[in-house]
Amino acid sequence: KLNYYKKIILLLSKLQKIKTKKIKTFNNINYTVPKYSKDKLFKESKLFLDWYVVKVIKKQKQKMIKNKLKNIIKILLKKIKNKKSVFVHRDFHVSNLMEYKKKLVILDNQDAVFGNQAYDLASLIDDVRLKTSSSLKEKIFQYYLKQKKSINKNNFKNDFDLLSVLRNIKIIGIFTRLSSRDKKYYYLKLIP
Residues 16, 86: contact at Cβ < 8 Å? Predict the structure, then answer.
C-alpha cells in the first residue's frame, strides 16, 4: 500500500504547485478559484452542530452543547499557523483517485480552493472510507514531509491535526445530513 500512497503524494505535490486562480470554464465563463478562509472552515464545521448534534443530544441540552462546540471550533481555527496558500482539492481521498492509462488521475475537483497545505494530506491520511493502520498513516505523513524540505514540520503537524479534526466533524455532519434528509443510510456506517 505504501508504494501506492507514495505515488499519490507525488501527485498531491504537483497539484499543490498549481498557481492559476482565474480560469475559463467549459461554458467559457470566467471563474476565480476561491480562498479557503477560516470563515468557510467554520461554516463547514457547523454542519456537525446543525445535523449530528441535533440527532444525538437531547433537545434541552442542544443549545448549550452547540455553543460550547462553536467556541471550541473557533479556538481550533485560531490555532492554525500556516498562512501560505496552495491549491486544495478539498476532497482528496482514494475514492476520487483512479488509474487511467497507467497514470493516477484526480476526479471530483469542482470544490477546489486555495488554502492550507495540510488539508488535502489530512483528507488522504484520515479518509473515513478506507481503514489504514496508524503505522501506514505515519509513513505516508513522513514521506510527504520528505518531499517538502523547507516546511516547518511542527507548524505543519499542528495544522494537519487541527484540519483533520475540523474536516472529520464536517464529514460527520454531512453523512448525518445525507442519512436524515436524503435517506442515504449507508453513510452512517462510515462514521466511526
Answer: yes
Query: Cβ atoms within 10 A of the Cβ of 78, count?
Result: 10
For the question of whether the overall pTM of this predicted structure is more than 0.85, the answer is yes
Phi, psi of 133, rounded to the nearest 5 degrees: -75, 160
C-alpha cell at 85: 496558500
Q: How far is the C-alpha of 22 from the C-alpha of 9, rounded, in Å?
A: 25
- The per-residue pLDDT for range 147-182, each reduced to its tens digit, is 998 899 999 999 999 999 999 999 999 999 999 999
Alpha-carbon distance 108 to 78, whole Å? 29
> How far apart (Å, rounded) are the C-alpha atoms in residues 91 and 77?
19
3-class SS shares of the chain: helix, strand, coil, % to 5 = 60, 10, 30
| Contact status, residue 165 vs residue 43, Cβ threshold 8 Å | no
> What pLDDT score does 128 carry?
83
Which helix or strand (DSSP H or E) is residue 158 part of? helix 153-180
Which ranges of 79-152 does DSSP label H, i.e. alpha helix? 119-125, 134-147
